[in-house]
Amino acid sequence: MAGVERPAKTPGVGVFLELREKLQSGLLIVGKDVARSPADVAVTGGDSSLHIRTPRGEQSLTLPAGVTLEQGSCIPTPAEGARGEELHYRMRINVARSSDEDAYDSVMETLRAKETYCFSCQGCMTRLLEDRVFKRVLPLPNGNWNAIVDDWCCHPDPFANKKLLPRAEDCLLGDTFLLLPRDDSCDQTLTEEVSPVGAEDSQDPKKPCRRHTLISCKSCSSVLGEAVAPGTLKLYITQVVVEAAVGDRKPEASLNRSVFLEGTIAARLLELSNSLSTFHFSVQTPDGKAFLLLWLLNSDSIIASVPEMCVGGERSASSPALHSPSPRAARALKLLYVVCSDTGILQREWRT
User: Fold this and answer.
1) Alpha-carbon distance values, 265 to 3, 183, 227, 271 (Å)
2) CA atoms of 295 and 352, how far apart (whole Å)
3) Distance between terminal CA atoms of the chain?
4) Which tens digits make up the pLDDT trace of 133-173?
5) pTM value?
6) What is the largest CA-CA distance in the chain?
7) Of all helices (H) and strands (E), which one includes residue 223?
8) Cα(113)–Cα(177) distance, integer angstroms
9) 129: how many CB neighbours lie within 10 A of its CB?
10) Any idea what DSSP says for residue 274?
11) What tens digit of pLDDT does each residue of 269-304 get?
């Protein structure tokens, strides 16, 4: 009808792949706009690669080193709930070795005693602390250790109202932060500001007023952590980049915030899950208010997703895409999460 503009069609997933290293199996999903029937799809494997032939052309996916398709194992399976909109295939894979080439190095695993490090602001990559050498790098107890201290002691809590603080040339590692001694150089790169009183705290006279002394980057004003005591810095691992000091190496350009945050949190969840044998986590604000609950389902997934518009298709010799590398299947954590509402009531809808 003239004068009526049809809504644009939302592009769907053309090819989706999930491999499980521990189960040595995988799921391949091909969208209905890419192939109509199982006969239209042929899947073969190469050296750490997967090749999917459809009426659109051949789509190649690069797999982590040591991961290969077991030839002839890819078979079509019924797609529950898809109503013919997708084609599902199950397959077997061979894992020669566990490759950590895609693993994100957590700052908790990076720091070592008697080595030299530089700390930079993640937002603008300004150097905050130069050539720091720690005599001791020690882990702090779990963040909720004081809640079970009564189970450790048969007498009154000896740690009541006491903070665990670093000595000179110490670095203490918390669940999501670092405790460092402050020195004179910090005055050149860091600023301090007392946090404002929250609306809820100001309206409730019975509720204790919690105010934090925030540490910010002097260059870009990004909040980096807190001053938990005179002469002690508490830096959040999601706000700073820690690198070994190598020669005259200069800090790299600003890292993509989403990629850095995603990698840092994923690495920390995996470390805590492995060390504490727990799979449930609570993400909290600095004042201890939970706003996100996480449930780690598995940590051995290898995932690739190619939009429908990017699958196959003819490419001209002048097209840059002709020489672009194949999409890469990346390691990922699979999570369920629930958002805590402002009223404290959990939303009932679980999301993946």
Assistant:
1) 49, 28, 23, 10
2) 10
3) 40
4) 999 999 887 766 666 666 677 777 666 667 788 999 999 99
5) 0.74
6) 83
7) strand 223-229
8) 17
9) 20
10) H
11) 888 888 888 899 888 877 778 888 999 998 899 999
